[in-house]
Records
---
Amino acid sequence: MTVKTEEESMARVRLNAVSCMRTDWLLRLIKVYGGAREVLSKSSADLSADGGLSPETAENFTADLAAADPYKEFEAARKAGVRVLTALDEDFPALLKTIYDPPLALYVKGNLGSGGVPVGIVGTRKPTDYGARSAARLSRELVKAGLTVVSGLARGVDTVAHDAAVKSGGLTWAVMGTGLNMVYPHENTKLAERILESGGALVSEFPMDDGPLSAHFPRRNRIISGLSYVTVVIEGDFKSGSLITAKAALEQGREVLALPGPVDSVMSRGPNMLIKNGAAMVEDAVDVIAALPADVLFGLVPTRRSRKEEEGACGKLCSLSPDANAAYGAIAGGGEGLTVDGLVGAFSWTVQRAAAALFELEASSIITQIADKYKLKV
Amino acid sequence: MLSKLRTLGLRGIDGFNIRVEVDIAAGLPSYAVVGLPDAGIKESKDRVVAAVRNSGFDFPIKRITVNLAPAEVKKTGTHFDLPIALGVLAASGKVGKGACGRLETSVFIGELALDGTLRPVVGVLPMLLSLKKAGARTTIIVPRDNSAEAALSGLECLGASSLKEVLDWINGDTEIPACLRAERERIVSVTGDFSEVKSQAFAKRALEIAAAGGHNVIMIGPPGTGKSMLARRFASILPPLTDEEALEVTKIYSVSGLIKSSRLVTERPFREPHHTISDAALIGGGTNPRPGEVSLAHNGVLFLDEFTEFSRPAIESLREPLESWKVTVSRVKETVVYPARCLLLAAMNPCPCGYFGHSVRECSCTPLQVHKYRAKVSGPIMDRIDMHLQLSPLKFADWEAIPRGETSLQVSDRVSAAMDIQRKRFRDSGVRANAFMGVRELREHCRLPAGASGLLETAMNKMGFSARSLDKILKLSRTIADLDASRELKKGHIIEAMQYRALDKTAELVA
């Protein structure tokens, strides 16, 4: 990298650290003056005269710029093993460059280069069993087909999607709403480590030490969709982060897909609305892959779940004892999961008999226990 | 003149011999008690003086010295009034020459009222039992209100009502009635019956196993799932205490002054301290050490509702009693040991708001909050808890249904039978129930049935059980087999036992 581009990168990181101005305005200023360094050299009077900023905004802006310290940022990033990319870097994600307001700087920990085709999976922080189960299954299928799962490391669907990808030995990228020096929510710290260990990446546009400000998350969402060829919405109400991501994806000209859900489920109102408005419906990985642009399809190995997985499930079920089969029926039909008491009550079994049936199902990985209830395994 | 009498002292829940020596000499009038008396004994001076006068005697206006030997041991209690007063009377020549045998050989215990009547005191039973253990054959004078309690010791005890009566007895002028043992009765529990609990078959079964094997239980469930209701009825499925156990419990209750109508305690204790209790009150302590709730629950149940609301020191202080089944209270001057073999029954909500995992209401806690809430119960405490019981809210149909489960008596009979099996099994080993099995007993009595090792391997690899949880599972399955009256462990027993170790399984990320 030449000295000139290095200075330009530094200038962009400095601009990126300013929180009082939207990215698209910063980009416009760079365009107006021909470079980030030029923007920095202007006084607030110049900025309001040529750049079209109001005098107060220009005043705040220059003050913030003076306060920002890109050297410190680079130092903090180096210490944390984080690379700071700008659009001038060759390995700045090409797909992200093409959106309307790509981030001026992208902090990357881990590996963003070698991944397969990135696909976003987003959804509510409080999914239903169905949502969590489907997110995990889809994520598993996608990484098995050789794609990379992009999500936001939030609670709920994001967590499940990342976790399933990592557990299936696939790649996954987490786009964070904080600086990379912290993980929010805190309990996902281990998950973030596992993502890195499995060859994935943590990504953020925010300075290293930024906390989880509420304004960060909608901005973060545009990067999730911006990094991905298509975005899948699992669950979410009308006004939710998931729909913000879907909207961003549409603005960026990317395909949005949605998981259909029951019409009386609040969490499925968002995706069902998207489907009504023309989003493609997702059942499994094949639907996602069908929505990808033709030039990225090479090398992908989609498998249709309906045959393979269901055969597997039947294979397991067929060898069960009559008791376990009956218990499976009760749990699968119950929806909300079943307690030991529920099973005892349904069949008038003893606790010991119910325990034996549940053990058989659990040992075959068909069901799992969450709090007091047994549910189908995701 | 000098007089010597015998009485008893109390250290923890054990008694020891004390000699009371009273010397009356010419000189400036004074009254001194030596031999490490506590404030209560020093105060006895005024009671003794008044009681002697009001019994119709003159109190000698001379130089009086009372010595409590052995002099280096700290003494507490109010039961020294009677021997001191008798010593003063004897030393001032109120005891006839020919009657001295009774004064010297008997043991005197009792607190005096100012009018000379005898008041009941605490700790009579433990003191007498120690005397009996030492092989003493002697007559013991106790306050009449302590008669029934004293009779439990099996020693020859007389229940006196006043100082005058005791003096007359010493002089051979009257006889004091012997203490009679009160009838042992089975008190019907007022806490309610097991059959009143609707649905909850799983929880009831779990508590039956806990009762049979003495296993500690933690109940986790949203508010209104019947945790407290089940716990209070737990006492009703426990069989009455054996004679040996009853004596142990009565001793502790005697020391704590909790014996009502001075009967033998035959019902298993059920203690339910509030969560604001201090650690000292929970496990015992104080300047003059007293047994805490764990000891009061000896051979019975300690129910800690809202377990996570107890202070951290209080929860952590349970480590010793749950591990070694006794509490050692050490003070500079003395060390006391109280037995504390109780069954811990803890109840807690699944999260701070209480609705984690609830089927209808939404939980408003973050995963971090839930994690922190549960972390209040530390690993070492959880290690000492054999059974995890996750309760679910009642469905409407269950609420509406007329309860028609088994009565407490029916369950209690099964528990009793299983306990008998364990008593026979552990006859020579000092272990009292399956929950207290050590590694050796575990190996001896919990042999795996054929084909079960594959079962446990699956449990470890697929469900995330650890080696330690497998040990607990084996202990539990031993109790389940005992309830089945089966000598051998069967696969079904082991599988059922796993149901009670749910928290050991790998946790899922999303509830």
---
Amino acid sequence: MAVITYREAIRQAISEEMERDPKVFIMGEEVGIWGGTYAITKGLMDQFGDKRVRDTPISEAAIVGGATGAALAGLRPIAELMTINFGLVAMDAIVNEAPKYHYMFGGQMTVPLTIRAVGGGGRQLAATHSQTLDVIFAYFPGLKVVLPATPYDAKGLLKAAIRDDNPVLYIEHSLLYPHKGEVPDEDYLVPLGKANVMRQGSDVTIVSYSRMAQISLEAAEALSQEGIEAEIVDLRSLRPLDMETVLDSFRKTFRCVIVEEGWKSYGVGAEISTRIYEEAFDYIDAPIKRVAGAEVPMPYARNLEQLAIPSKDDVIQAVHEVLGIA
Amino acid sequence: MATQTIPLNQNAEVNSDKLVEMFRQMLLIRRFEEASEEAYAHGQIGGFLHLYIGQEAVAVGAISVLQPQDHIITAYRDHGHAIARGLDTNALMAELFGKSTGVSHGKGGSMHLADVSKHFWGGHAIVGGHLPTAVGLALAVQYQHQDAVVLAFFGDGATNIGLFHESLNLAAVWHLPIIFLCENNLYGMGTAVSRASAAERMVDKACGYHIPAQQMDGMDVVAVRQTMDEVVSTVRSGSGPHFVEALTYRYRGHSMGDAQRYRTSHEVKEWEERDPINVFQHILIDQGILNDKQVGQIIREVNHEIEVAVKFAEESPEPDPEALYQHIYVED
Amino acid sequence: MSTKLTMPKLGFDMTEGSVQKWLKAEGDSVQKGEPIAEIETDKATVEFEAPNSGVLQKIILPEGKTVPVGDVIAILGEVGEAPAAKQENGQQPAKTIQAPATEQSIPRPQAVEKPPAKEEAEEGELTPLRRGPDKSPSRPAAKAPTRTEAPAGGTDGGAQDRVKASPLARAIARELNIDLTAVPGNGPGGRVEKKDVELYAEKMKSQAATAAAAPAQTTPVMAPARQPAPAPAAEGQLQEFSKMRQAISRRMTESKQTVPHIYITSEVDMTDAVALRRQINETMAEDSRISVNDFVIKAVARALESFPNLNASYQEGKLRMNAQINIGVAVSLDNGLITTVLHQANTKSLGQISREVKQLVKRARENKFRPDDLQGATFTISNLGMYDVEEFVAIINPPEAGILAVGSAHPKPVVVDGQVVVRERMRITISADHRVSDGAEAARFLQEVKKQLQNPMVLVVG
């Protein structure tokens, strides 16, 4: 077991998969000579050459659409979007082309495509560059959407995504890049569509994913000092969604807080809580609580931005509320 | 517009069998479209139905020069391209009827005909949405050093969307083996090219990306074949992308139920006088390649094939309800 | 036509029982298969279902009173039939009782003054009458009897809906038959939550126990001179035995006093079984994993095929050779012990045994038995392996001929081929009824069980 950063875990996954399979290549803005805007692909061009580490023009639709075509013809491309916000100009390619082909053409076509993008706020990039858009993409059947919260998952999920025969959107969080964790030395995969119980607890279930899973973990450690043991379910994948793990935990704790960085309206919390109502109504011992980002375009000013993003204290407060502690 | 035809004897590579086959394909497309128009009126076909009548020479002439390893991708007016590529008319008609025996098992319909085994990567319904995909197919060819080209069909309307420009630029930057074939039928739905596009010549749009471009007479199958033969050879030899504009015309509305307020019946009549099938038939008879009797025989064969296709479509089963949840994902 | 409902026999050795709770009141209409009472036997509380649809005309056996099996406990009449006799308790307004239950089970006040609906149907006035309840402005009044019909313990429906309670609290209250209106809510805004219901249930239990113990406590007060009262701490509190405790006490005493037990112990090498189990469980979800006990059940059931005497019952000087091999599995509960029955265990796969035992144990812990769960065992296994027990001897559960007591499997140094090696060992002790079997046979039986467990693959494949 080596201790590496989330950033390094992603880089290793790309590098190892490219070494393993010559059909794997990466294309995107600044992935080559620059080494990636977030330094994820640093050194890969030297290692694999410009045929397999391809700088592109600023053409997100053509990046994702082009990778889709290459995937149709049997390659296993990784299309990098500099940030998920730029995915909005490639919406047709991400949600209306790649995820539809297998179904719409009666199973003839497969699209083994991985789209990588970074999301989330917290770096003072203001309204257009700080969004958490996960649920928009998770809305579409045919696309898989995964979001690692730890270096272990970052590597295992990305390798699994690259080897998956379906289009997978893999969303990183920029504030997690320096986060360190243990990663096995040998090859391993983290299955797509399987949630992870990050921490065991009996008093309340906190459902979260990506950076908010780490924030929830910090909150859980603080709550533990008060004698409250929170169980944390890291969804890891928004589609397919692993409700079994969530429900198993909920049927143990009877109380739930859902923590997401995105906006509350129509969000992950709305989905998860509704499914709990549908599947485990008789196990509900308190109203389910959602912690989510403030419903505003992200402001630039540091203090305002911090107010807009859920914090450890927000999670602690929500847990207190579902436990009836004023 | 120039209406010159190329004397057949200038094109030594075209043997008479190939010409007869092209003629048969054009008739087959025409008859397929007429039969589907009828079935639509009977309520046997749902959704949109975009007929290719009038444009047959483009698909048949262009695809006639391709090799099996080459790739084809097109937009939603895709019946003609599918037939020209040799997709089974039974399975094509069954797809229009929404039957399980359709090329896409009844999941795609008229706009989504495909047969991967023939490298026919589909009709695509989002205007311009398939152009980046086409570029990607060409990237895969280049990446794997394959001896293949990609032929991407699209209409004049698609040249006004951003996807078109991103695709042309990326293909040119990466020097990809792709031919962008724009079928300019003068209308993007009901909006005339002159009202929608600042550049009325589609070829002009390729210039900005340093992509070689030329126009051809899309009503003349021989001209199309000759132009495409040269273009495909050039691209196959590693020239990078190429752009071709076929000047053509659709006789029917954009889709079914189009009142066609945007054009006069006189205009349609003028184009019908240059009907690509009639023109080609006269050439073949003049050149002594076919006689009237042989033409009659081909027409009967084509009519029979389409009758069989309609019957096959009618009698085929609907998709099993279980198919609803099949093929959302590739299962392990 | 009315039907006499009698105290059912809910176990092959059940001789008497009591109605712990009537779930229906006199005059209630009941559907075939609908639970109408909870019958308490000495083992468990089992729901008693209506044998056919009709109206519960009369309750003969009051709650809590014990009668022999076969005694009439209630009368079930047909829909529209008048009650057999005037009711005794007078809890319900006569009007409600007399009102014929319509198909919708909503008696309307008007119906009392009119001939029964059945006759009206024959007169062809069906439509206007049936429409009545829907259109009648007196609809709220028509609902009133429905409310009084609701049994006190019911947690669903009108009155309960006005209690602020979490869905979980409601579910638990329904399970424990607790009236939520009586439970103080300590959640936000006075909401009743799980802990409130559990606290209330606990309190009710201890109150019942205190009430039962009260007369005993008064004794020393009434006769202070006769005997010095022991110090309260030493004396403790005298409690009534629960039904289950009474049964255990009676049957175990009977067994130890009348059945001559013979005990034989053997040590089994479980190394391979433990390894195989681990291997199997690696591929299984947590809740479907196979236990060591599942292996033991399978091995014992298989072995019994060759030892019919140990699968027999001593019965009045004769031996009943049982046709099936039904393994009793002793389950410890908070308030005692119950033996649930895995029928025809020898015919079941290891996976099937594992699944069914899990369900049996779950039902036992939730006190939700099916009649089959408790009767028909021909041989019992008691496993205390989870308590780090080296070995123990168990008391036979009459009329069975034997019981196997299973200790913990744990690593031990043993000599194999002249070498000291560490192996997983487990001790098993059979108690056999010496009237039907003897030491040698019981020993051979143990050998057979041991052989099976030491070649665990045959248990998986077979």
